[in-house]
Amino acid sequence: MRDDAVSPVIGVMLMLSITIILAAVLMAFAGGMADTKPATPSVDLSAAFVKNGSDIVLCVSHNGGDALNPDDIKVTAYVRNAAASGTPLIIKDFIGDDTAWNAGETLVIPKDKTAELLGLAAEAVNTAAETSAPVEIGIYHIPSSNVIYHADILLEAA
């Protein structure tokens, strides 16, 4: 007669373990959804210093790939020889009223903003260019926190 109680106990234990497993799976699924970041855009970018009259400016070209929201793109620079790091710039300031930075468009960052980006005085940019100072340029997609362009280019007066 004591064997009759085994079946209900096993049934309750099975139901309890299934409930715990389902709760753990649900928590893992819901927890993973909260941490999703936007996808990093796939783009081909390039940057170069260009002589514009007597001034040197930074040109950043969007050569192909996804259109970019100018509010989401940050540019940084580090001049190695001068150990200078300036103020990061947001592309929105140089694109005008456009809501997208599309393939085929080149942004010209004016002399004063180029100097600010490099962390140099405006007249020191030309001096650094005479020595072909290496500059590390980084372009970042802010929502995904990822680098979309990184290169070492020379600051030259050519």
CATH topology of the largest domain: Immunoglobulin-like
Total number of helices: 4
Beta-strand share of residues:
25-35%
- In angstroms, what separates the terminal alpha carbons? 100 Å
Query: Could you say how many structural domains there are in total?
Result: 2
Helix content: 25-40%
> Mean of the pLDDT scores?
85
Order of helices and strands: HEEEEEHEHHEE
* CATH class designation of the largest domain: Mainly Beta
* Radius of gyration from CA coordinates: 27 Å
Q: How many extended strands?
A: 8
- Class computed from helices, strands and strand pairing: alpha+beta
- The biggest beta sheet, please? 5 strands, antiparallel
Shape: elongated
Topology of helices and strands:
Layout: H1 6-34, E1 43-52, E2 55-65, E3 73-79, E4 84-85, E5 89-90, H2 92-95, E6 106-109, H3 111-118, H4 122-130, E7 133-141, E8 146-155
Antiparallel strand pairs: 1-2, 2-6, 3-4, 3-5, 3-7, 7-8
